[in-house]
Amino acid sequence: MAMTRVAVLGAKGRMGSESVRAINAAEGLEVVAEIDLGDSLEQITAAGAEVALDFTQPHVALDNVTWCIEHGVDVVVGTSGFDDERIAAVRSALGDDPSTGVLVVPNFSIGAILMMRFAATAAPFFESVEVIEMHHPDKVDAPSGTAVRTAELIAEARRAAGSADLPDATTTDPDGARGAKVEGIPVHSVRARGFVASQQVLLGGVGEEFTIRHDSHDRTSFMPGVVAAVRGVGSRPGVTVGLDDILGL
């Protein structure tokens, strides 16, 4: 069986180091370059990597992706905070007839992906919907990429269904207690020791509440999604956001 050669960027970080182990344990994949702060990206091509997996920081991830595009290396972006502006820059770098694939994944957990899908399905049936995400206090961005993507999917589903605006009589909120608004959906971020990655979607209608919750207790929960992304990115030129298509959703 032919081996797909993978470079991991941010290889010494929490997700990067776990991914190195998972990729090397997966059939048909091998890590040929482990790149971290201060290392040259030239190691990617020198090692003959076909796919780069980026778990760095938002302020450097775009430069890494652009470099990979210029050198014909497919990229899976797992860096949280890779927002719409950065995605637009990647589309521009790829051009009108892309030969390289860039897969941007807000969350690699299969459970979290299903949570987002279920939330989008349920959202038009309820008058109210809010998102609460809970992560460890070492996380540098808020709200999480998963929460942003969840809110975007909810808003898209509600627009398609012709749903009314969310009811909210708040007129005074000087400290932002009502959270951030992502496409009109309130998103609240908790940063507390003990959490890895958790999210709740709270939906409410007259006389009832419906809660969808997902918890990741260990980073190993993300690894099946990481392996699927690395295997699938090469067959999808251009930009793809999320693992839904790769998972057959």
Automatic annotation (TrEMBL):
InterPro entries: DapB_C (IPR022663), DapB_N (IPR000846), DapB_N_CS (IPR022664), DHDPR_bac (IPR023940), NAD(P)-bd_dom_sf (IPR036291). Pathway: Amino-acid biosynthesis; L-lysine biosynthesis via DAP pathway; (S)-tetrahydrodipicolinate from L-aspartate: step 4/4. It catalyses: (S)-2,3,4,5-tetrahydrodipicolinate + NADP(+) + H2O = (2S,4S)-4-hydroxy-2,3,4,5-tetrahydrodipicolinate + NADPH + H(+); (S)-2,3,4,5-tetrahydrodipicolinate + NAD(+) + H2O = (2S,4S)-4-hydroxy-2,3,4,5-tetrahydrodipicolinate + NADH + H(+). It is an enzyme of class 1 (oxidoreductase). (S)-2,3,4,5-tetrahydrodipicolinate binds at residues 136, 145-146. CDD domains: DHDPR_N. It holds the Pfam family DapB_C. The keyword NADP applies. Keywords: Amino-acid biosynthesis, Cytoplasm, Diaminopimelate biosynthesis, Lysine biosynthesis, NAD, NADP, Oxidoreductase. GO terms for cellular component: cytosol. It is found in: Cytoplasm. One of its GO terms (molecular function) is oxidoreductase activity, acting on CH or CH2 groups, NAD or NADP as acceptor. GO terms for biological process: diaminopimelate biosynthetic process; lysine biosynthetic process via diaminopimelate. NAD(+) binds at residues 10-15, 34, 78-80, 105-108. Its EC number is 1.17.1.8. It comes from the Bacteria. Transmembrane segments: none annotated. The keyword Methyltransferase does not apply. Residues 164-174 have a biased composition (Low complexity). NCBIfam families: dapB (TIGR00036). Belongs to the DapB family. Homotetramer. This is 4-hydroxy-tetrahydrodipicolinate reductase. The gene is dapB.
